[in-house]
Specification:
This protein is α/β, with parallel strands linked by helices. It folds into 2 domains: 32-185, 3-Layer(aba) Sandwich (Rossmann fold), CATH 3.40.50.1980; 193-310, Nitrogenase molybdenum iron protein domain (Rossmann fold, 3-Layer(aba) Sandwich), CATH 3.40.50. The protein has helices at residues 2-22, 25-29, 39-49, 72-79, 96-104, 114-118, 142-159, 164-189, 207-213, 231-244, 258-269, 296-310, and strands at 32-36, 53-57, 83-86, 108-111, 124-126, 132-134, 198-203, 216-221, 248-249, 275-276. Helix 3 (39-49) packs across helix 7 (142-159), helix 7 (142-159) runs antiparallel to helix 8 and helix 10 (231-244) packs across helix 11. The protein is globular and about 65 Å long.
């Protein structure tokens, strides 16, 4: 009996030591809190982390990140976060002081653009005042976005080492999908006659897109929508339409239509023939997360299909393995 009692005590002691070594089950299962500023950033976290993190997205569908000001709820969410992921290159122009304050509180912030910038692939341009600036729309080249999501996987793995291997594996698989998307998009955009490869848009968000596929961009506004387009801006674009003979001009989902309408009116007053694209383009913001255009692949496919079909050119066959699948009417010939 005495030996049995000793054995029970030893077993209880071992169980206690194991518990102390492993820690409470609830602590092990606790998820990190991640805040993502833009719709693109939130989609990247969903793809890489899935349900392994508590994700809070700040900006909704169609919200212009150049103009968005963080709310009290946004600031509270960031203050409670383990990690804040943002686009960077001053896309979120109203967040600079908030990010500085978070750094002072040792809350980690991570710009998605960092791997692209470090690799030397950021496009230099001019801001509204004529000063040198970085073009913040780096995600419009899928090769840049692959670098960005791999960076997200690494920072998530550093913050949550338990799931690090999963994050890296998801990023690797997603990068393969992005390469497939790029190859399809390159074939599609190359189908438009070379002398027509000029993309006319509301604001200058598509330089990376144009560089990726051998196109040029003419935009009414600069890299930010913070400043209103002037009469001379509108007249300049109208003249470009007249000179090039480009028949299509594109409206962006996150930018008011009135600027493009003014350009069309100016071009037509000069005898030009121009129409808007068959659909709006996604630029600074995507759609709601449960919509096709609320995913990066869906947004990008939508834009490529809209541009190519607006020039009345057929699209190549969409890759079978690429998900999510586009609606038949989006890529219909």
């Amino acid at each position: 009996m005495k030996f049995k009692t000793i054995a029970v005590c030893i077993a209880l002691l071992m169980a206690t030591l194991n518990f102390l070594a492993e820690g409470p089950v609830s602590a092990q299962a606790e998820k990190i809190n991640v805040v993502a500023t833009t719709t693109q950033a939130a989609d990247a976290v969903r793809i890489i982390a899935g349900d392994k993190v508590n994700l809070t997205g700040l900006m909704g569908a169609g919200v212009d990140p150049h103009l968005y000001k963080p709310t009290e709820a946004d600031i509270r969410a960031m203050n409670e976060a383990d990690l804040v992921i943002y686009s960077g290159l001053h896309l979120e122009g109203q967040f600079d002081k908030v990010f500085e304050a978070l750094g002072e509180r040792s809350i980690r912030t991570y710009p998605l653009s960092d791997p692209v910038k470090n690799a030397g692939y950021v496009i230099e341009t001019l801001d509204a005042k004529g000063a040198s600036a970085h073009d913040p729309h780096f995600w419009f080249d899928p090769r840049n976005w692959a670098m960005a999501v791999e960076g997200v996987a690494e920072v998530l793995a550093e913050t949550d080492p338990t799931n690090g291997d999963l994050y890296r594996a998801n990023a690797k698989a997603y990068s393969a999908d992005l390469d497939l998307l790029y190859q399809w998009s390159l074939e599609a955009m190359s189908g438009v006659p070379e002398d027509k490869r000029i993309l006319i848009t509301s604001h200058d968000a598509f330089q990376y897109f144009a560089a990726a596929f051998g196109w040029k961009v003419v935009a009414v506004q600069g890299i930010s929508t913070a400043a209103e387009a002037s009469v001379s801006d509108i007249q300049k674009v109208a003249k470009a339409i007249m000179d090039s003979g480009i028949p299509v001009i594109f409206v962006e989902s996150s930018v008011p239509h009135r600027t493009i309408e003014a350009v069309i009116e100016s071009a037509r007053a000069q005898g030009g023939k121009v129409r808007t694209g068959i659909r709006d383009l996604y630029s600074d913001a995507m759609d709601a997360p449960d919509k096709y255009g609320g995913t990066y692949i869906g947004m990008f496919t939508h834009n490529v299909a809209t541009i190519v079909r607006s020039f009345e050119v057929e699209l190549p066959v969409y890759p079978e393995t690429l998900a999510p699948k586009p609606a038949a009417e989006l890529i219909a010939q």
